[in-house]
Amino acid sequence: MRLSRRDLADLLRSAGATLFALGVLVLVLRRSINDDLSHLSIFLLLVAPATGFYTLVLLDRPASGDRAPTSTAVLAILAILLGTGAMFAFLNLVGARTSHSLYEAGGFTFGTLLAAYTASRLRVAYAALLAALAALVTWQVLWEQIIPHESAGTTRWLLLAAAVLLLAFAARLARKL
């Protein structure tokens, strides 16, 4: 199988960005376990590549009606994941207890909004999946806070309501893409 020059560049850009993001995550996880990094360092280590990746995505926007190239989609997904992690690091930095449900919901809401914007505006289809998953986590966390000891039946109804809302969002997004 022969790859064109453009496909090879796209593949190498995607692989390089993925390896870089994994390197950042390994560094953050390894150093945070040993308590070698401050909250500010962790935040900066996550927000810098997320911002860089998202800037590259914005510079490589597809023309109207076109879908994003594979490398742009990979960069967007990595930016969303690192950006959501940076939001949790920011909450730790300002002293918020990220183990509290509402702060957890706030972090995932940020991820949902970033992914939804990326999916609709930049035409990255996998970002819609990330937006739906982050919205589902936010939905469950919020309802767990509202109804502390919900039954299995209540959880099923809440998930069904979330599924209907996500289906409506997907139908609207499908018309755009």
Principal-axis shape equals: flat
Backbone structural class: mainly alpha
Helical amount: over 70%
Instruction: Count the beta strands.
Output: 0
Q: Characterize the largest beta sheet: strand count, sense, and whether it forms a barrel.
A: none
Strand residues, percent: under 5%
Number of helices: 6
Quick overview of this protein structure:
With 177 residues, this protein is an all-alpha fold. The protein has helices at residues 5-33, 39-59, 70-93, 101-121, 125-146, 152-176.
What does this structure look like?
It is flat, with a radius of gyration of 18 Å. It has helices spanning 5-33, 39-59, 70-93, 101-121, 125-146, 152-176. It is mainly α and 177 residues long. It has one domain. Helix content is 80%, strand content 0%.
Q: What is the strand and helix layout of this fold?
A:
Layout: H1 5-33, H2 39-59, H3 70-93, H4 101-121, H5 125-146, H6 152-176
Helix pairs in contact: 1-2, 1-3, 2-3, 3-4, 3-5, 4-5, 5-6
What labels would you give this structure?
177 residues; mainly alpha
